[in-house]
Specification:
Blueprint (H helix, E strand, L loop, with lengths): L1 H19 L5 H10 L5 H8 L6 E2 L2 E2 L5 E3 L1 H12 L5 H15 L20 E3 L6 H9 L6 H14 L8
Parallel strand pairs: 3-4
Antiparallel strand pairs: 1-2
Helix pairs in contact: 4-5, 6-7
Length: 167
């Protein structure tokens, strides 16, 4: 039903443009640019809840966005448990531990389910990439709940010697 309505709207717009002598599709294109992404209610809904909506030009715009230590915690556990392994095996075991133990969050209307972090309103940290970056996020009071700060700092200290940026 929604597709039939949309098609009727498009035909009506094209007829109006033809009467005005405008290039066909210009008014429709301008209208779509103003409306933003999503041609049907489902895609508009999916776009609005997109995880990447939490940043705009590097600034965090939604107050509810907070960091999550789930991924960092699971990687740290696996890294400590498999110390001494060859680096490539160690990274593989960290990934395996994470995938077996991470939270699975499924949202309504998803065709492909799952998300790469604990929840859509959480910002995951990647300590194996760089402990300094993780510390920057921890130091931001607007992103870090107080109860996660100490645990996060311990992880930063551990990963200083093991992160890829330390190599």
């Amino acid at each position: 039903m929604a597709n039939a309505t949309l098609l009727a709207e498009i035909k009506q717009e094209l007829k109006l443009e033809a009467k005005k002598g405008q290039p066909l599709g210009k008014a429709l294109w301008d209208k779509k640019l103003k409306e933003g992404p999503g041609s049907v209610p489902r895609t508009k809904h999916l776009y609005k809840r997109c995880r990447w909506a939490h940043t705009a030009g590097g600034e965090y715009v939604r107050e509810e966005i907070k960091i999550s230590l789930e991924r960092a915690r699971l990687y740290t556990e696996a890294h400590k448990a498999n110390a001494g392994e060859v680096p490539v095996i160690l990274r593989a075991k960290c990934l395996e531990h994470y995938l077996k133990n991470c939270s699975i969050y499924i949202q309504d209307e998803e065709s492909i389910v799952g998300i790469h972090n604990e929840r859509p309103d959480k910002l995951e940290l990647y300590p194996e990439g760089g402990a300094a970056n993780m510390f920057d996020y921890l130091e931001d009071d607007s992103l870090t709940p107080p109860e996660l700060y100490d645990e996060g700092v311990e992880m930063v200290e551990y990963w200083k010697q093991w992160s890829l940026s330390a190599m």
